[in-house]
Structure formats: structure tokens, C-alpha cells
# Entry
Amino acid sequence: MYKIVALRVDFGGTIGFGHLFRMINLSKYLLNNKFKVILISSRCNKIKFLSKKIILENKIKNFYDILNILRKHNCNTLISDISHIRNLRKKNFFLKYNIFFKKRNIKTISFDDPSQFCSSNISIIPYPCKSIKIKKLKTTQILKGIEYSIIKEDCKKKKKKKFFSKTRNILVILGGNPSEKILRNIIITISKIDHPRVITKIFIGHIKKKKFKYILKNKKKKKIFILFNKFENIQKLYSWSDFVIVGQGLSKIEAVAYKKPGFFTNNINQNGINKKLIKDFNDLNLLKFVEASEFQNHQKIAKDLKGFLTSRKKIIFNLRNFENIKFNKSLDFIRRNV
# Structure
């Protein structure tokens, strides 16, 4: 007999797509383990690469709409990934959300931000955040750490790409809503690398390509820049790359999962919690942290980039650290607790 699970997720231009990708990876795991999966999102009709086995529900304006969907499918487990800036700004939003469903005998599991008050039955915080004290209800079970991140199972099956003395493929993904200013500085920086023919693929999200027309016109001839605002297969992009420049979201976790050396930068507004998250991730010695403002010092960062692209020792050092990182610990936990 099939168990039924509902996944509630938000995504889009200002929110980003990390929440969606996490839920898609979770849905694949649940389907493979004979679960019936319902995806609840106001934008689910925009997703073109979902399994046809997933039931889509997009008519949600309030908590009662979600409850009616759960009752319609006789589902008593709700897994939510809605901890984004819009909801984090609403006072007591998550407490009201989880109490509403728990009072109606719905088990709540959530992927949460370390800055919020956690109130679901099981709260998963998939980030390295040892230095952060999580605020929670007494009855809430907390699972935190990078090992609870959900990434594609095939990441672990991928063969290691050989790194040669002249690596040249750079991938830049700062998240679903990248900063135009940071991307401009990164393009200028890469154009100044004194290194044989470099190819750079840059995800620009909602930004129009013409915004970068002037700086691309003045780049060195040996540098090739490919700008794109849509992708369906992140695996191909990481497999192609030799080096990555990523943001603070899911992209940095994926870079580690695919064992890619590189830089990560603070592409979102900084507060006390975010600074601690940067420090905790940096302490793992996986990717090098570069302050967003540092990309304005084009020559210095270009020199650092060249050092990484030409130093086999640095790349091998990073790969050894990657081997110690495990992922998807939350998958089996969710399967056993639904």
C-alpha cells in the first residue's frame, strides 16, 4: 500500500530555485520508495521537468486551501520548503503555519532557515551551522548540518574529472536571483586572468543579456563568455566545469557534491546569522570564500583565480576534503518518520 506525502514549496525569480530543486530530488527518492507524492505550489504549472507520477496542486491562497488538498488525498504528512525572505519577514508566520496543521493532526516536517523560530514536528536545517543556536519549540526535533542537504543521488556516482595543468572551464551560478553588480565584477575579473583560453558559463537569471553587452565587448579575445538564464540539467553544467564561482545558497552545496573546487561569495544581504553561516561553511575548507566587494579588485582576484586554475596541488587538496563530506542523511530519516 502506498504512503501519501505532500510537498509544499515556493520558488521563483526573487525567491530562487534551490527550494524547488531540493523538493524535486526528495520527490524522486519518495517515488522510488513507493510513496504517492503531491506537490503543492502556486507555480507548479511552470515546472516542465517533473515526473508524471507526481500529483500537482496549485490553487492555494491560504492555509485552509492546503488543508483541503491534504484531506482530498487522505494525506496526513506535510513537508514544507518555504523558508525564504518573504515568509521570514512575516511575524510568527512559521509558528502559525505549523500550529494550524498540527492542531488538525497533520504531521509537519520542514526545511528551515537557521535564523527562524522552528516549530514543525521535525525541522531540518541543511547547512553547516555549528555556531548558531537554533530557536525552537520544546517538541520540535532539530536535524542540522550539511549532511542533511538533499542532492541528486547520481552526484555520488560521478567519476572524478581529471584536472590538468591548464584547466579552463569556469561556471558561475550565484543563485536564482543573482546580483547584476557582482556578475559584472566577476566578468571583468575573469577577463583579466592571464591564462590560456578560458571559457566561462554564467547564469544570469532574470537579468537581460544586453545589460552585459558593453563589458563583454571590451573583453580579451581569448576569453569566451556564455550567458544563460535557464537550465534544466545542473549535472551537465557541473560536469563540464573545472572551477566554480557560486553564491551562498544551494549552488555551493551542489558544487561540493560534484567535488568542484572554486570560490563562494555572499550574494545575499548580510546579518549576524549569515556571517556565522559563512564562517561555519568556510571552516570546512571546501570552497574559498571571497567577499562580494573583493571582486571589485579585479587584478587581485584574477591573480588568485589563475593560481587555482594552474595549481594542481590546490585542487587535489580540495578534492581530499570533499571526500569526507556526506549528503542525503535526511532522506532515509524522512522515509522512516512519515
Summary: The chain has two domains: 3-144, 154-322. The longest strand covers residues 3-9.
